[in-house]
Every structure is written in structure tokens, then in C-alpha cells.
Amino acid sequence: MPAPPPDFCKPPGKPVFRFAPSPNGRLHLGHALSALTNEALARRFGGRLLLRIEDIDRGRCRPEFVDGILADLDWLGIRFEQPVRRQSAHFGDYASALASLRARRLVYPCFCSRQEIRAAVMGRESAAGGAWPADPDGAPLYPGSCQMLDEAAAARRIAAGEPHVLRLDMAQAVAAIGDGAGYELFDEEGGRRFVAARPGRWGDIVLARKDVPTSYHLAVVVDDALQGVTHVVRGRDLEAATDIHVVLQRLLGLPTPLYHFHRLLIDADGRKLAKSRSSESLAAMRERGVSAGMIRHELGARPAG
Length: 305
Hints:
Layout: E1 16-19, H1 29-44, E2 48-53, H2 63-76, E3 85-86, H3 91-103, E4 107-110, H4 114-128, H5 151-159, E5 165-168, H6 170-177, E6 182-186, E7 192-196, E8 206-209, H7 216-226, E9 231-235, H8 242-252, E10 258-262, H9 282-287, H10 292-298
Parallel strand pairs: 1-2, 2-3, 6-10, 9-10
Antiparallel strand pairs: 4-5, 5-8, 6-7
Protein name: tRNA glutamyl-Q(34) synthetase GluQRS
Organism: Bosea minatitlanensis
InterPro entries: aa-tRNA-synth_I_CS, Glu/Gln-tRNA-synth, Glu/Gln-tRNA-synth_Ib_cat-dom, GluQ/Sye, Rossmann-like_a/b/a_fold
């Protein structure tokens, strides 16, 4: 394991934590665990606690879900500093970060549809006689079909309105930041451990789309820096994605927070709770008589107040 680079030091000042849900559905018990874990660790370390609404997906995020998030968190008794940051009000911040990466030729347009990517991957699997590599989420790595497109030809296609995304050239990005990239994990007692990043396993990730001008990865990195977040507390399902965030932080000259990944809640089928699987919402639990105190007790959190 490489040694931590020289700039790995304890963040100065008062610790800053944040809970950052997306308003594309109602919060469930897994969100409550994450919010309460942030609350508990902010209290333990004498830190500030922020709320951020991650609503960059304007097609799926709805105002009523924002209202629902605020109502659920108030019901749980979690208090956040004001104002609440809404990502949809800050697309200019993400555009500036993306422009700096494009200026360094670390980003390129990709015109491949999902169907074309699947066909290219299947063709390469057949030629190689083996399975094509997948990223940590299980999706096949982008095969680089558009990576070497002529810039003038690509510009004409963009000007003509052809659908496309912008991808990070991961090999170039990793070369630009050099060796020793990583982050520090912290535990409930304040202990810390360096973790080396392995961003290459993600391939050329998407940083922006025509309909959503930033990605989760780019927006969260920019937001954490602008809000002065020093301690990121989130579920273990996002641990691998931290590799991407470290790369973007280094490329953009942003600080790397400390990280803590909490357990995930599992349903009767052995799958983590998720909005996409219609896991029971906190609102539904409240309607059937479950109290906020019961939720806090079940998740091992201190009473509110």
C-alpha cells in the first residue's frame, strides 16, 4: 500500500458533516440510518451538520419529494444548519469545474447509445474469448469507441444536435494526478486509516449528459468543497465510488474529506433498501403508527434533542 501523500492532514477548524438525499422518491429506513449516523458523528466530534438536496436529475426529482424529505427529517428530530443547498440552483458551479477539465483535454464527447455500447462489448468479448471487464457496480466498462474521434468531426456532430455525453478519460486523469492518490477512513472513535484509490476499475465515467449537465460524481465533489465538508458519512454501497471522487478532487485542486461508510439495511430478500424497489417509506411507517422514537431506538440512535 502506498504511503499517504504529504497533504493528508487533519482538516482544520470545526468538522462539517452533511446528509445529501435525492428527491426522486420518499425517504425510507436506510435514509434514516444515514441521516442519524451523520447526526450522531457530528455530535460526537463537535461538528456542524448540513443538509443538501441533490436534485440534478430534473426529470425524476419533484418538489413534493423535497417537501417530503424536509417533513421526514423534521419528524425524526434532526436539525440542520440553514440554508439548505439545492444542486439545481448551482449548475454554473459544475459547468465551471467541467470546463476546467475540458480545457486540459481530460474530457471527450461520446455519441454511443447504450445499445451500441452493448454491441461493442459483445463483439470484443467474442474476439477475446472471455468476459469483458465490469465496473464495481457491475456495468461493462466503456470500450472507448469515441475516445479517438476527430475533434472537428465531433464538434460538427455536437453542433448538429446529436445526442452525446461527456466522459472523463480515466487513463489520462490518473496519469495527471500521479501516484499515491487515496483518502482516509475514520471510525466512531476518531481512528483513521489511509485507503489507496483504484479509479481505473471504473473506466471512462460519464461526467455530463445533454439533459443533465453534470453527474452525481462531479456535483458531489464540487458541493463538498464549496460547503467546506470535512467528513463524508454515507452507506457502504458508495465506498467504491470514492475512487472517482478522489480523482476529481485532485484534478480540480479540491480538498479530500475524511470518509466513513456505515452499514446498509437489508430487506427480507437480502437486498438493500431502495426507492426503486418500493421499500416502505418513513411516511408510510408514520401513517401506520410508528413513532420517531421507535425509529431512533431501532437504529441505535440517541433520542432527539
